[in-house]
Amino acid sequence: MARKVIRVRIPDIAPRKIIYLGGGSSSAFSVDDRLVVKFPKIGHQHQRYDHFVKQFSREQALYKSLSARLNPDEIVTPLAMISRPASGFSGPIFTYKYFAGTQVAKMRLAPNHKRKLAHMLARFLTRLHSIRQINIPGVPKIAPETIRLGWNTQYETVKRDVMPLLNRAESRWVAHLYDTYLSGAGTRPPRVVFLHGDFGAENVLVPKGFARLQVIDFEDVCWGDPAADFCIWYQSYGEKFLEDMMTAYGGPIDQNFDARVKFYAARLPVVYFTLYKKSGNRNFLTYARNYLKRVMKGR
User: Fold this and answer.
1) What is the CA 91 to chain-centroid distance, rounded?
2) Closest to 189 in 3D by CA, of 279, 254, 112
């Protein structure tokens, strides 16, 4: 289906090699190592067409702003929305500039590559977090105290919506996580920076030589705690990787930075329990349960 739709909607190319890249809310394909084409998933438990149209417009505005402040090759380049109808797919498709790299999540990293990657990620975050002003619709600035109060508010939501889904051991573990954090590192608000918001191995591409990287999926950009952009990497690659990232990071690191990274990483399964509560999709519940078990075992 993808080949047919691409041929009809982009008639100036005759695709020979179409490779499925994966995707969450959209299915992404590389086309002859020239373009990346995304097909949004529409319908039950997915968003409406207009959501994706607005999102793509936001991506274009974000690229325009970020490319003036960062290395343009380090961020995914949105090209065009193509909405001409084609048999088999009635919605819009979206095209992006191709980058010859592999998702880090699909790579087996040697120790030297881990160190190099940690340094490249930290340098990217140094530049991203140094942005002081950016005008992107729907991304309001927040105060440090708002973040601190948000941790407490989230705990109340977890007690109400998530705890009833857990067994006794899981409930005790989650309660201990929040109680310990909120009575310690969580008493002090963090500084506020511009975040990627979903900065992990699924959203970073690296070529074979590890000479550069490209960051994709800026859907969750926001203002917040810089430690939040470290937490997925810590959970995926461990203490040494976090140490290497923090060493190479050029932004301020306060005394509670490490504790916040580890708190954010440990509470990640909670996100999927809340997604289940909102959507009713039991796939989220199954994933959340397995995720929580891994985190509780320290894996």
Assistant:
1) 24
2) 254
pLDDT tens for each residue of 50-96: 888 888 998 999 999 999 889 988 999 999 998 766 566 777 899 99
SS (H, E, C) 198-216: CCCHHHEEECCCCCCCEEC
Q: What Cα–Cα distance (Å) separates residue 29 from each residue in 11, 34, 87, 151, 283?
A: 17, 11, 18, 38, 24
**Helices 257-266 + 168-182 axis angle, to 10:** 160
What structural domains does the chain harbor? 8-98 (3.30.200.20), 103-296 (3.90.1200.10)
Phi and psi of 80, rounded to 5°? Answer: -155, 150
The phi and psi torsions of 148 (rounded to 5 degrees) equal -60, -45
Q: Give the tokens for residue 148.
A: 């601190």
The residue assigned the tokens 């991506």 is 59
Q: How many residues does the chain have?
A: 299
Is the pTM higher than 0.70? The answer reads yes
